[in-house]
Amino acid sequence: MENNTTESNKLLAKFMGYEYVPHLPEAIYKPGWWYKNTPDKYSKIGSKPTKFVESYFLCRRHGDLRYSNEWNWLMRVVEKIEKLNLSNFYDENNFMNVSVDIESGHCHIFVELNYDPSHRITGVSNYDTPKLKLVYSQVVEFVKWYNGRMV
Description:
2 domains, Double Stranded RNA Binding Domain, alpha+beta
């Protein structure tokens, strides 16, 4: 289970735009970190223009990824899912939004459409599963679906 959770956490980190830099002696970035680039920034040092890239560091090791056990981490993924524009998957005028519905014992992810019924991408109902695990499992399933569509 732990390896599966680690792989799912890595999947979510990549979906959120983070990359892992393994420990390499010649690495530009700090070795062994999950990071996300921000837009390039330029500055002048003396008369010589130099370019540098700011990075945001998420964590050091794969085991430090907390999407599976921290609401704050997981909700950032939910918010990104809800902001996705999937109009390239559907008729441009038909697509409205992606909604993540979280209720007691339920988590469903839908694509809301203007002209057609909503399309459920993933969903589960289970009152015996803690809400965090329930939402996490459905977010992972959605990201797998989404990544498959992006190919």
